[in-house]
Amino acid sequence: MTSLSNNDAYTVGSKSFTAVAINTAAKAGEWIKSKVGGYNKLRQKSVANDLVTEVDKGAEALIRNLIQTHFPHHAFLGEEGVTPGPGAFVKALDNHKDSEYLWIVDPIDGTTNFVHGYPYFSVSIALAYKHEVIVGVVYDPVQDEMFVAEKGKGAYLTGRRMEVSAEEKLADSLLATGFPTDRSRALPLNMRCLQRIAPQTRNIRSSGSAALHLAYVAAGRLSGFWEYGLSVWDQAAGTLLVKESGGTVTDTKGAAYGLTVSDVVATNGHIHDSVLNELMQEEAAFHTEIQN
Ligand code: 2AM
Ligand code: CA
Q1: Which of 39, 91, 155, 254 could form a disulfide with 244, with the two C-beta atoms 3.0–4.6 Å apart?
Q2: What is the pLDDT of residue 87?
Q3: What is the pTM of this model?
Q4: Could you tell me the distance, in angstroms and rounded to a whole number, from the CA of residue 8 to the centre of ligand 1?
């Protein structure tokens, strides 16, 4: 019997949501990792994106099949099942507005890294109950690190409880961000924010997997993370990891995290207002300039 809260709605018979999420992420991660080496040979024969799509799609099918074997009545939203485009995930979420249990999956978060053999990518699996994430698992198959959170029960890395870091000032903080693909808004906006924030911090990292950056905030390895233009599958699992490790997650305007958030800020809590303040000032200046 597994119960994620006092609410009976979270209770299932003999199958644990979290155990299924962990086993599924481990299996998919192992398979993805086995494809990293073979990729260069195959690339000679096919268009680069096709092969990536093949591995992404293969991993997503594996994950979907495993989850649906255990929970055939749950809904499933995976990145590869959605037509690409900015904000496409909001429409996909809307199609699931009546789904009680919804699994939200990114089979490979950090596909560019996967293609280049840069060893920083992850499998991200979240389960939402009535639009709120109750289980979040992010697995890094290269380091064999499984980050796991259950709503109200804390977050764990390889059996050890995670806690966010203790830095209280931006000057002592290590932050991470990403370089979004949307070149009309998200990328130029983020470049300006980076220019503003970088000199105020200890340093900035950008490693190419939003889910894994969020897991690193949860583990206390990063003081915080922000990025514009993300989709729900990049961040649903990671945001629960941060919250259950004692951190704070909002959008870039300071509103509480929800599944439709695209511009996200996740920190150890202590530096949250400082990061938000810098982002909001830069965002306001950016919008004023593009209107004039
Ligand atoms: P992906 O590898 O699953 O595409 C890097 O900045 C982060 O942004 C990664 O988590 C990456 O996830 C995500 N990302 C890349 N392209 C994106 C897009 N078009 N929309 C939203 N997120 C994207
Ligand atoms: Ca992906």
Answers
A1: 155
A2: 82
A3: 0.92
A4: 36
Q: Which domains are assigned to the chain? A: 11-161 (3.30.540.10), 170-291 (3.40.190.80)
Residues 6+ apart with CB under 8 A from 147: 136, 137, 138, 139, 140, 155, 156, 157, 162, 215, 218, 219, 241
Tokens read off for 24: 């599924």
> Consecutive sets of 10 residues in the chain, 292 residues long: mean pLDDT of each?
39 73 98 82 51 86 97 96 87 97 98 93 98 98 98 96 98 97 92 98 98 99 98 98 98 98 98 98 92 79
Residues annotated as catalytic are: 79, 106, 108-109, 111, 234
